[in-house]
């Protein structure tokens, strides 16, 4: 179940030539693919590009009408390998995934694709997420492009530029017989705007046409002696063809004045931030017009020497705005100036940080410092020599004003009791080495659980614990992998590896029915019916097929006691070999997305609906907060009482509670805490419900009056 539906928005993909397309960047990319006559698309979800897959999935009817094949790939490597269809056939293909973690996985297929080259246009759309978005490690796609000699486009964050980049990318790929990587940052993916649409094109050759007339060119197969010639072809033919295309099509852009003593060079994706900084410095208007010379690199690899050298003519200093490190572009430009014997001084990381996201404030500070040092005459007087400090709260002070919000599990998450049980077992048996994995379950490293020592990649959690398979070990290792990671890479790399090497560790497969962390898309083991995909393939059967003998399946993770008992058994059994526990419960977020519309419709239609709610009896709660120490649910907090005899705040459940009951179960090792109560809220009650309610209230009132009459009351003095 996808994070959201694009069923209404995808109708915009039918717009024809001359009509105005208005919408989000991701939707514009999809429209551009169809306008370019793409023949097939594959991909794997991951922020900030996840929604592109959702859009394509919701546009199946439109794709079918055009003869475009689409599939949700098993991994990023699978998606990139799919582009092999463009090696021999003049079919345009596209693959999409998150970078750089996705590019890491895809690098094998990417290197082979780049070596042999392509005939049809091959476009790799990567969600560049350098900075504090949803990335894991802080790396850039640039290194992969340089390593495999794949051309890299980085368009300005507006819809016309994005659409043009898709069109240019396909043509550049075909002209140079090289795959092209199109990187789109979060601002590109989610920017809103408009552009003039073109007619969608049916691919001149579909994948069905290609199958009916197979082609084969040994010169494009990565095998000696052809592979030795590929490298020469890259340098002698493909590179010059790419440079000529970039130059002749004016893919890179120049704005501002034709003359000036300084200039700014930037990646295309940085353009909006640069313009905003210039606006705040008084050097650009509301429409982005400026007199400061700007050289915008919509193609960041390869670079065009003569374009850059022409831009530098007559300039004393040029600032390179390149986010992240190493500073590949700055180094390349410095080499160009050195070889050409030019006197223009090139600066970059002297004014801008080597690492970290280039936020608005960072850009303002860096560009401002550059201009004050190199061209102070351009700056308005109040900027050049401010008389007062800026208003507002200093950024450093916000740490003390805004409370921290560390990443954590959603309300009612079925993964939370798994880690509560793990903590309880550790209290009994001692601490164990725990290997984590990519996915929602990685939040277990945060309070209140504080579990996990490493994470090595998607589906590689158990593999990362394989070094601890020692016959002398007194304790077994524990490793976690999600159902998404299991099908992505974990089945062979982790479970298969453990079976083959007779690893004696414990593997917990967290099965929440979806690849939840990347958008909630269906996977092989999803239990919902999917019209276009094959689901309902149990993880347990796949694990058995790999040769696992010790296997336990828990179909309700909220049973903390059972989860604890199973973990204890796995860690203490005399049986050798991998111990696999499949812990299954539906992702609560997706469950709410699925059930809430149905429930709301039923209530509106007058049907009887019962919703469970949990609460805490303030008179009974002791304030020991055991429910929080092993839960960490956002709906569970503390509440101070007015009672002067009770200093400790009691537990409190807010209105966001979804009624999973986990907090009560973990309060005392799977024994429901007596302070917790459950109340069933009945919508559209029947006559019988109303009668029972009146009877219960009468009995409760009677008992309350009886207790009140027996209470000792002191007379007023």
What does this structure look like?
Strands 3-2-4-5-7-6-12 form a seven-stranded mixed sheet, sandwiched between helices. Strands 9-11-10-13-14 form a five-stranded mixed sheet, with helices on both faces. A five-stranded parallel sheet has the order 15-16-17-19-18, with helices on both faces. Helix 8 packs across helix 11, helix 12 crosses helix 15 (360-374) and helix 18 (416-429) crosses helix 22. The mean pLDDT is 89. The chain has 717 residues and is α/β, with parallel strands linked by helices. The protein is built from 26 helices and 23 strands. The protein folds into four domains: 9-248, Rossmann fold; 253-386, Rossmann fold (3-Layer(aba) Sandwich), CATH 3.40.50; 416-590, Thiamin diphosphate (ThDP)-binding fold, Pyr/PP domains (Rossmann fold, 3-Layer(aba) Sandwich), CATH 3.40.50.970; 608-708, Alpha-Beta Plaits (2-Layer Sandwich), CATH 3.30.70. The relative contact order is 0.07.
